[in-house]
Structure formats: C-alpha cells, structure tokens
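Support request from a user on the community tier.

User writes: "When I paste my structure tokens into the form, the page sometimes reloads and wipes my input. The last time it worked, I copied everything first. Here is what I submitted, just in case something in the input itself triggers the reload:"
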C-alpha cells in the first residue's frame, strides 16, 4: 500500500514536505484615498476597509509598516469628475498628492499606482466615450498622461487596469520618453468582466452610469484568450502580469504560470473579500483558516504576488506562527 499518511504524522513532517509558503513580501495591500480633510469613511460592503483623506493615511501607513507589508496599491477618489477624467492626470490631483505623501513618509514602501479613468470620469467608464461606445485609441493618450504624472509623483510601479488594447506599449513609451525608464509596469492582463467587483465600486465610486464593461473586460468563459492577453502584455513590455479576480480564475493563473516565467500577480478582489468577511461575521466559517487557505491556493496555482484586502490580517496571523 502507498501510505500517503506517513508524511502527515506531525507538524514537523508536514512542514518538511510542504510545497508552498506564503511570505509577507508576496502581499500587496490596496488603499483608497479620497479628496478632502479628516476623513476615515468605512466602506459598508467591505468590513474593515476605509477611505482615507491624505491627512489621515498616516495611521494606515503605521499599521502597514507594523504588519511588515512591503507594497500598497493606491486608488484615488477625486472630488471632481468630468467626461475626460481630468483629475486622473492632474499633477496636483488627489492620487498624485497621495503618492508624493506616501513616498515622503515611508520611502521604502513600494507604491503601485492603479491607472484607469473610471474613478475620474463622470460616466464611470474606464475610457473616453462617444455616445455609448468606449473609445480605445483616444483613451491611450490619457492613460499615458496619467502614468507619467504618477511616475513623476514617485510611484514605483504603474498598474493599468483599464483593459484598452495597446495600453502597455503606449504607457511604456510614454514613461521612457519622459525619463522614467526604471518605473515598472504591472499590467492587469487577464481582467475579467466580473460580478466580484461590486464592493470595490462602492469603495472607489467607480460604477459605470450606463451599460457594463463587457466590451473591454474579458468574458469569464474564456481561458485561452486570457493566455493571449498575458502574452500580448508581455510583448508590449509589461514587467509583471496579473490575473483578476483570483479565486474563480485559479485555472488561468496556473495556465499562465506554466507558459511564462514572468512574475504573476493574483488580485483577490473586493467581492471575494466581502464574501469571506460576511460568512465569518455570521460565524459560519473560521476567517483565519479560510483566508490562509485561499491565499495559499493562489501561491499553489503559480502566483508570486497576491493583492488582497486581507493583507494586514494575514501578515498578523503569519507573525503568530
Ligand atoms: C478599476 C479597477 C477595478 C478594480 C481594480 N481596478 C474595478 C472595475 O474594473 O470595475 C476591482 C478591484 C476589486 O474589486 O477589488 N478599473
Ligand atoms: Zn476602470
């Protein structure tokens, strides 16, 4: 008989044969920064997550450093929105000021800046619109401007999440031309049109005012196409590729990890977070066990980097062990 249980007899044996580990350095913590003063707004659909004004991010940064987290993904919520998303590429916009503030306070914390127009446009779409149509090439220009403006503010990594075609190459060229050859690009490569983003859209005030995102984000039914998206972004110059959401798309993470040696990020999105939170608040599941199980599943599938709202909790639990 093959006795598989011999390798499970005690923790020392189990840890000796353990194949995957989660490290604090794998984790990226998303933060929402809202225009205004003295604001710390709870996001109702995301227990434990808040919108902070710049003058209040300090307390969040303290917790991040204390937990030993090395990277944040920043999202801005401007006071003013318009058709063109002007605040996205205003050097004095809320997100640019936030990036400058974070890099001044904690220079060693990696700042990953999300690049997309949906938080900044009055219509809530990720690109410019003409009637009901979301324009591709016209949007690239603005994404390039936003990327340069965030790199200028000090962002270490630019993370385009808009899903316009050709944006990685366009952004890479714009960064290079403006003297930011060393600013990396983490591309949201295989980003699916997902129902799991709803809590985020509350948090970031970014729900589209008409239609949906299905003409630019991917069809959840498609795995092969996800590989093509990743290959295209690599060819265009991405340094890190991302699969998003994570849990319902671990097959995509696995497939992509077998086909490329580029670092892969998995984005454990808002709806995935909120489901775990809701079930654990009801006493139906053990939050710590389920979160750690979900995160190790992403590593097992082949992700190196995990973007998660659980990052602070997970880091604290890792400390205990
Ligand atoms: C903006 C953006 C979204 C998310 C990250 N960047 C929302 C969307 O595309 O509608 C989702 C993150 C999450 O749900 O946690 N394009
Ligand atoms: Zn968007």
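"...and here is what came back when it finally went through:"
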């Amino acid at each position: 008989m093959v006795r598989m249980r011999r390798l499970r007899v005690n923790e020392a044996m189990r840890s000796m044969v353990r194949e995957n580990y989660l490290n604090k350095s794998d984790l990226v913590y998303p933060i929402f920064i809202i225009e205004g003063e003295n604001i710390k707004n709870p996001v109702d659909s995301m227990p434990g997550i808040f919108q902070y004004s710049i003058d209040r991010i300090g307390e969040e940064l303290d917790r991040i450093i204390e937990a030993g987290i090395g990277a944040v993904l920043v999202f801005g919520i401007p006071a003013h929105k318009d058709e063109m998303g002007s605040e996205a590429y205003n050097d004095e916009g809320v997100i640019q000021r936030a990036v400058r503030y974070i890099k001044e306070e904690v220079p060693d914390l990696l700042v990953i800046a999300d690049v997309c127009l949906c938080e900044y446009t009055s219509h809530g779409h990720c690109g410019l619109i003409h009637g009901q149509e979301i324009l591709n090439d016209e949007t690239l220009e603005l994404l390039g401007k936003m990327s340069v403006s965030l790199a200028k503010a000090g962002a270490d990594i630019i993370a385009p999440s808009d899903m316009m075609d050709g944006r990685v190459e366009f952004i890479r060229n714009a960064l290079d031309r403006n003297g930011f050859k060393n600013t990396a690009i983490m591309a949201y490569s295989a980003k699916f049109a997902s129902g799991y983003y709803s809590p985020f859209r509350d948090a970031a005030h970014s729900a589209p005012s008409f239609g949906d995102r299905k003409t630019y984000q991917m069809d959840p039914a498609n795995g092969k196409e996800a590989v093509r998206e990743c290959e295209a972004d690599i060819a265009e110059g991405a340094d890190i590729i991302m699969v998003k959401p994570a849990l319902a798309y671990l097959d995509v993470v696995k497939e992509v990890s077998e086909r490329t040696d580029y670092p892969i990020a998995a984005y454990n999105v808002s709806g995935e977070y909120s489901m775990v939170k809701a079930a654990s608040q009801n006493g139906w599941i053990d939050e710590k066990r389920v979160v750690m199980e979900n995160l190790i599943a992403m590593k097992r599938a082949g992700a190196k980097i995990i973007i998660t709202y659980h990052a602070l909790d997970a880091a604290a639990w890792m400390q205990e062990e």
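Agent notes: The reload is a front-end session timeout and is unrelated to the input. The first strand starts at residue 27 and ends at 34. The domain at 23-241 is CATH 3.20.20.70 (TIM Barrel). Escalated to web team.
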